[in-house]
Amino acid sequence: MTTILRNPNSSRSEGGDPNIVIDERKRKRRLSNRESARRSRMRKQKQLKDLNNEINTLQTANKNIIETITIKEEACVKTEAEKQIMRAQTMELTERLQFMSSIVENAKEVSGLSAEIPDPLLTPWPIPHPI
Fold first, then answer.
1. Are the C-beta atoms of residues 14 and 24 closer than 8 Å to each other?
2. Cα separation of 123 and 61, whole Å?
3. GO annotations under biological process (predicted)?
4. Tens place of pLDDT per residue across the chain (131 aa)
């Protein structure tokens, strides 16, 4: 059993068939649904495009961060190697200084000099002060 909805203003006063009015309403509703579906698809496409753009932006930023980290790690390794070299040089120079000091001490004992030989490495350099 089909129920026909009638518009009280249109069916009798217009003199038209009530089925035509219902068909017109169905047609308008279908058009409205199609337009709504089209807008929904457009929104989804825009959202997908925006998400793809964000993915590309984040991947580029991630790549830049990884490159920066790699550069910093290489600089850290290089600095650590230089630090080790400087430590070895410091130890070598300290041993040389001790050896030279022992030679000076032996020379003092042999020659009987009581005068002290100044060691410029043990006294700090004077820092110039502006007047």
1. no
2. 53
3. positive regulation of DNA-templated transcription
4. 455 555 555 444 455 677 888 889 999 999 999 999 999 999 999 999 999 999 999 999 999 999 999 999 999 999 999 999 999 999 999 999 999 999 888 888 887 655 555 666 666 666 666 65
Look-up of token digits 């002290």? 116
Place of tokens 């000099």: 113
Place of tokens 């129920």: 3
Q: Report which residue type is found at 82.
A: E
Token pair, residue 54, equals 């964000």
The span from the CA of 63 to the CA of 80, in Å, is: 26
CB 104 within 8 A of CB 117: yes
